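User: I'm putting together a small comparison set for a docking exercise, and I want a reference complex before I start. The sequence is below, and the ligand is S-adenosylmethionine. Could you produce the 3D structure with the ligand included, as structure tokens?
Assistant: Of course. I'll restate your input first, then give the structure tokens for the complex.
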Amino acid sequence: MEETTEERKKRFRQMSQNALSLDIAFIGVANGLFPAIQEANSLKAEDLSSRTGMDRDYLVRWLDAAYAFGYLEESSPGCFHLSPDGEAMCPDMPDTLMPVAVGAVLSAHMAERAAGCMRTGERPGEVVLGERKSILPWFGSMIEANFAPLFSGQILPKLSIFGEVDARSGRVVDLGCGNGWYLLSLAKRFPCLKGVGLDGFGENIRQASEKSKREGFGDRIRFVEGDIRHYPLEEPVDVFVMNRALHHVWSDRETVFSFFRKHLSSQGAVVIWEPAWPESREDLRDPVRRPLAFQGLSEHVQGNRLLSPREIVEAFSEIGFSSTILSFANGNESVVVARPGK
Ligand SMILES: C[S@@+](CC[C@H](N)C(=O)[O-])C[C@H]1O[C@@H](n2cnc3c(N)ncnc32)[C@H](O)[C@@H]1O
């Protein structure tokens, strides 16, 4: 039966409420409100203000809204504790929902930029990610929380190369390493493996270096600020990894792929993880792929384009490497493992 106008209005209002709910959650995430309430167990606006340094009057309004959207329960008049949804917004909780809230507000920002740039065709580049001061520090942990469980649970068990490299105390270079989570999880799993992470964004390198030191990997895993395309390497590399970074430098792929060919050891491999742009437009309609369609637009604002696994394999073939495509998350994520030789 066809949907009535009233039913359609109701459906859209529900979507709008869902967006508002994530907006409220983002405010709590960005200002450390959820962990502060969790730590106190139960508190009032004044206590939350002294714990977080935030303005009391803003907090009064945020507490009302977070209560309305079910992130908080009222313990006694004006005194709140976290509901299960509020607990799930604490960034350090296992399976945290923090990246959903951060991603929602980042998407709104990207939508606004796309709307403004469309007339002129301007593509401001990756600077757009740094335009919102409250989102910027969350970028690395958002990606980590979104993808680290998939990596350790499903991807890593399929990648034998890291065990091989560990056995010969070899070296992994992560190009576009973000906050360093990938290299650090390899270091935890493989005790002899050494690694260098390179990223062009100073805040990422600061967070990654701090984490490496804090977790006791400072002697094996280093992070360096620099451009993927001009990284001076003295010794051959056993594994190059690039996670969600190749599409950022695809317009300069000749430089990047000849860099792989020049610096990879003969026993080595390149492991590329990218969102998998589908070959057919119809696939984007699948609800699990819709976020990819939005990302396609958001990457365009940043001067990038998402890649199909086939394009990556072809680029490797041009430098004489053979590749295997591994597919994850209902085909949304692909890992291409390439080695020298046909
Ligand atoms: C989507 S993020 C992925 C980060 C990380 N690999 C991860 O999985 O969390 C892409 C990263 O590539 C970095 N990047 C993009 N172009 C770069 C370039 N030319 N040189 C160095 N880093 C670059 C960005 O700073 C960003 O951290």
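The CA atoms of residues 108 and 115 lie 11 Å apart. The two ends are 56 Å apart (CA to CA).
User: Thanks, that's exactly what I needed.
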